[in-house]
Each structure stands twice: as C-alpha cells, then as structure tokens.
Amino acid sequence: MFKNLLLVFILSCFIMSSGYIYLDKVLEVKDTGTEVLYVRAFAVSARPVLGHLEITKKALGEYYKSFEGVNIMLGHEKGDPNLCIGRVLKASVKHDRDRKVDYIEIIFKVFTQDAINKIKTGQYYYLSVGMQDIESDHPALTGGTRIITEFTGDEVSFVGSPRDKYARVLEFSEKLEEVLE
C-alpha cells in the first residue's frame, strides 16, 4: 500500500581522516509513481560568513564543480544515509546584483516524499554547505577571518539557521527544465 517507494542502497562508504563517514555512491531504486522535485538554490557566497570565514572569489570559481554529485542531507548528518534526501545535479557560479556578491548556485533533485512536502510548504528553506577546507590562510594572519582558497564540496544540508544568510531555496518544480536557466 506504499504509494511512493524509494530504496537507497549504499554501495560503498568510507571513513575520512576527520572521522566522518562519507557516502561514495548512492543507487536510487524507485517505482514509476515516485514523485521527485527539482530545486534551484543559493548554496554559498564569496563574502565573510558570520565574520570568521570567507571563500575567495577565485576559489569559488575554481572549485564550485566539486559540489556536483554530493548528497543533500538534513542538518549535516553525513554519517546517516537515512537522512540523504537528494543529490546535486549541477553547480555554477552566479553574481547577485542586488547583494553585490558572487555565489555558488546549485540545482538538485529531491527524492523523498517527506522532504518534497517540506520544501513545498517552506519548512525546508535554508541551506548550509559542508566542505573540506583544503587550503586557507590562518585567522591570526587575516584579522580573525579564515580565508579559504581551496576546497572540496562534501554535502549540502537543510538547516534551521544558515551561516550564510543568503543560502536558501530560490525556486522548485517537478520539471527539471523549469529550474534550469
């Protein structure tokens, strides 16, 4: 009697040196009646975030594609595959003229019915990115702000209060072509 069926099989997991479990590959198996939702979102910007973290514009432009293929999670719970609700399909760098900031825009697919409903009603709205800081300037050298010059995207999560105040859902649709520009 299950209308929407979604089975997620973890093909491989591995533990990084940081102690987190990262999903290497996820296989989606669903019946033909499973609803999906495509979302366009503002993921992270090249500006100081909460006054102590900043990604350079150059790094944003060079490493944005590392977010393609990462999982959409709930609350940065990377170790719990049951909290994986989607996958990033596309990442690009955009410029917001009103806010005068460059940012990473992502297009992602959501494949769990509960998450789809919560996005549609606005319960899931704000986003936060998880990334590995490959190279950055030490805060003591930059007046207390860690300047990230190289990174790798790990995941994107729905959160209640994002570090980047602009990180949020911009639009959504059942049709991929409607969220692509």
Would you spell out the secondary-structure blueprint of this structure?
Layout lengths: L5 E10 L5 E10 L6 E9 L7 E3 L1 H7 L7 E4 L11 E11 L4 E10 L2 H8 L5 E12 L8 E14 L8 E6 L2 H4 L2
Parallel strand pairs: 4-9, 5-9
Antiparallel strand pairs: 1-2, 3-7, 3-10, 5-6, 6-7, 8-9
Say how many strands there are: 10
User: Rounded to an integer, what's the Rg over CA atoms?
Assistant: 17 Å
Shape: globular
Please summarize the sheet with the most strands.
8 strands, mixed
User: By helix and strand content, what is the structural category?
Assistant: mainly beta
Strand portion? over 45%
Low-pLDDT segments? 1-32
What do these coordinates show?
- With 181 residues, the chain is mainly β.
- It is 10% helix and 49% strand.
- The strands form 2 sheets. Strands 3, 4, 5, 6, 7, 8, 9 and 10 form an 8-stranded mixed sheet that branches. Strands 1-2 form a two-stranded antiparallel ribbon.
- Strand 8 and strand 9 form a beta hairpin.
- The longest helix is centred in the middle third of the chain and has 8 residues.
- The N terminus is likely disordered.
Keywords:
181 residues; mainly beta; eight-stranded mixed β-sheet; two-stranded antiparallel ribbon; 3 helices; 10 strands; 49% strand; disordered N terminus
